[in-house]
Amino acid sequence: MILKNNVHRLIIVDFHATWCVSCQMWSRLFAQLSLRSPTAVFLTIDIDEYEDVVVSYDDDVYSFPTVKFIRGGCSKEFVVDTIVGDGPEFILKLNSLKS
User: Fold this and answer.
1) Among 3, 17, 20, 29, which one carries the catalytic annotation?
2) How many domains does the structure of the chain reveal?
3) Would you call 17 exposed, middle or buried from its count of C-beta atoms within 10 A (0-12, 13-18, 19+)?
4) 78 or 58, which is more confident?
5) pLDDT attached to residue 51
6) Does 74 qualify as catalytic in the annotation?
7) Which of 11, 12, 13, 23 is an active site residue?
């Protein structure tokens, strides 16, 4: 529902797993970035709890964390970028996609 109600905004989805140590460290930064980017919608999806959502994006979610940038809709066709891993690439992509 959140995706469908915000198709006009940049939606940033963090696919993570509770057992993933890298995901746990990344989630703190993800939460901080959400506070600094009020025009974007930030979502966190636990891959074990919401497996059906992960499957809807095909096999593109295969390593964790995986962050998808979505604009204009809620299906996989509207994914404008994907970052796999927890490096600084995320901040650069966010800055380029915010406008």
Assistant:
1) 20
2) 1
3) middle
4) 78
5) 79
6) no
7) 23
State the Cα–Cα distance between residues 27 and 65, nearest whole angstrom: 9
Residues 6+ apart with CB under 8 A from 7: 71, 72, 73, 74, 78
CATH number for the domain harbouring residue 29: 3.40.30.10
DSSP label of 75: S
10-to-2, 24, 77, 79 alpha-carbon distances in Å: 12, 23, 14, 10
Strand, helix or coil at 74? coil
Cα separation, 64 vs 23, whole angstroms: 7
For residue 10, which of 28, 32, 34, 31 has the smallest C-alpha distance? 34
Q: Residues 9-67: pLDDT tens digits?
A: 898 988 888 888 888 878 888 888 888 888 899 988 888 898 777 777 666 666 778 88
Residue range of the domain that includes 8 = 2-97
8 Å CB contact between 12 and 78: no
